[in-house]
Amino acid sequence: MEEFKQMARKKAPRPGEELAKEIIEKYKPKTVEDMQNACRKRNSRYEFL
Known about the structure:
Layout: H1 15-27, H2 32-46
């Protein structure tokens, strides 16, 4: 039985990772401050819905 190796499980992306990837693709931030501003812009759109 030692000849069978267990395969690593594929991890599901966390919600924060998907959000970060979306922000990076859309806003292309260069600094942490740019990333924070992009988060604020994105969050402010949903306040009025």
